[in-house]
Design a protein that fits this description.
Layout: H1 16-47, H2 50-57, H3 60-87, E1 91-92, E2 95-96, H4 99-121
Helix pairs in contact: 1-2, 1-3, 3-4
InterPro entries: Fumarate_red_C (IPR003510), SQR/QFR_C/D (IPR034804)
Keywords: Cell membrane, Membrane, Transmembrane, Transmembrane helix
Pfam families: Fumarate_red_C
Length: about 120
């Protein structure tokens, strides 16, 4: 009979990096909710059911889930963009582009796309 040590179910609480990793993975559920919500909105717009959709979307629990989903999606995006320099190494003529430049480019692109979406929607 072989020895198997007891499993620590709260292993991710031992280090802040582990906790952030687990929280980031859990935020994927809220990212998926945001996608489903947008698909439902597009379907309502295409079928002419917008009044019914807005009535449903105005329910307190839907508003609460959307606020939580917004915060979780923002956390997911920020942590993803902060990890990009570790996954992407860019070299120009043998010079390694610093991490802050890769992150800065990613955050700048996010800002530009967000501003473009705001401009289109307004």
């Amino acid at each position: 009979m072989s020895y198997s040590p007891p499993r620590d179910r709260l292993w991710f609480l031992r280090r802040r990096a582990y906790l952030v990793f687990v929280l980031r993975e859990l935020t994927s559920v809220f990212v998926a909710w945001s996608i489903v919500y947008l698909i439902l909105l597009l379907d309502a717009a295409m079928t002419g059911a917008l009044p019914a959709f807005w009535a449903w979307a105005g329910a307190p629990w839907v508003v609460a889930v959307n606020v939580l989903a917004f915060a979780a999606t923002a956390f997911h995006a920020v942590t993803f963009l902060n990890l990009a320099p570790k996954a992407t190494v860019i070299r120009l003529d043998g010079w390694r582009v610093p991490d802050f430049m890769i992150s800065g480019g990613n955050f700048s692109a996010w800002l530009v796309v967000s501003a473009l979406i705001l401009w289109v929607l307004s």
